[in-house]
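Journal club prep — side note

Before the paper discussion, L.F. wants everyone to see what a predicted structure for a comparable chain looks like in token form. Sequence:
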Amino acid sequence: MWLCVSILGTYFKMRFSEIIGQEKAKGFFRRVISEDRIPHAYLFTGIAGVGKTSTAIALTMALNCRRPTDIEACGVCPPCRQMAGGNFPDFISIKPDGQNIKIEQIREVNRRLSFAPVSARYRVCVIQQAEAMTREAANSFLKTLEEPPPGNILVLNAVEPLNLLPTIVSRCQRVPFQPLPVEAMIEWLVRVKEMDRERATIVGRASGGSLGLALRMSEDVFWEKRDVWISRILKLPSLSKGDALTMAMESATKEKGRGSDDAEPIEPGLPEMLALWGGWYRDLLIVKVGAPKHLMTNIDFRDQLNDVAQYVTIENLTASLVAVDQAVRDLRRMGNPQLVMGHTILGLQRLYSNET
């Protein structure tokens, strides 16, 4: 079984013009392609779901298209059709095997890269969640970065460069990806996915600028879980410490989700639940300070938010937002949902135990 697998089959045809936002990244690639000075290694940084892998696909198409216009692939030549069909032999992607990218996977990548591209001008290899490489895998991959085989472009996707070896970061051209504009996502969801505007507004604002997260939130299973997740946060102030800890363990075990990265469908889990909780606290803060109501995320819960806002303080709401944001970071960094959720929910429960 290949440890290095192509994942193009999970994508629709993707060109630069079809990527939402990321104008700085597009401008960068426009310059390097026009000057024909292509770095051999890139580090794409930013939260999941903002277009890092889509950009790697668009780059592959642009570099190998036989009739490109500027950075735009034609979409109809043989390489473009192969990319669209998910069977382009010179696009490779690997992702974690379980929690980590293991040295055996990197060795297989290195072996594949030692051969010339099958038919393309450039072979592109994407390392999904590059921060998940074990130290042994990272050191093995570093040797490839130091002496890259000709005709190969390496793309590392990561949330933050601090999670990678400094020697790897220093050998890559960093391309930062920003959270997507909320209104642009909402319009895309309405136009392309034909989503009801109110629902598109809710998931667009709750996703934190991640289109991948917004798409997962648009599935029916998310809306089924949403009421459960909101009920948990509503009853949290009345729970004892023991009951709050039970809620934390239930959240950690029941909301694991399914799948990984922004490349494939994922069953809603802890990231979606925490995003929803963050949106809930922001909505309460909007109500509490009298900000314009059109800024709210959970617009279908206006009445309940107005009721709850009477009994909470601005200080506690601000601290709650910080706690949820830290939980997202810890979950990404530590990969221990029981520990993260236990710490987070007990912290939130303490914040509200003295509310009157």
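L.F.'s comment for the group: Residues 1-12, 258-265 have pLDDT under 50 and may be disordered. Keep this in mind when we get to the figures.
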